Amino acid sequence: MPRRARGVYPWWHGRFRGFGHRITLGREAILDVLIKANKHLSAEDIYMKVHSVYPSVGLTTVYRTLEILVKLGIIYKFDFGDGRARYEIVKDPKGVDHHHHLICSNCNRVIDYTEFIDDEVELFKRTEEGLAKKYDFKITNHLIQFYGLCKECSGKNKGF
Length: 160
What we know:
42% of the residues lie in helices and 14% in strands.
């Protein structure tokens, strides 16, 4: 895990400490794995990567840390319908890397969908505004998942 220059901290440090949590080596290692991940990882995936470098970090520590990180809004927890929770770092506290997911119901492939067109952005904005007004609810974020068949699986099932 890279050393940081004194006084230089990532955006999540303040949030973590502000809620009374210590930043331990194990917790930093877990976050480091999530920051470097190029896919949605399960707790077991994270454990295997962290444990190989820091053998003292156990699976229980990983689960507890993931719970804290979700509550603090530092990571997202997803259920893609395969019975295993998956995790992803919030790339930016302002949601700059916001995306949705396309999930294949056959092979469980997850595609991050980021190329929003203006009509989609306007639809989501109107939907959020309408729901907020209707239910007197302040919406701070949303997670959208679309389920179906990926290109490879839809080609396999053409005969059905």
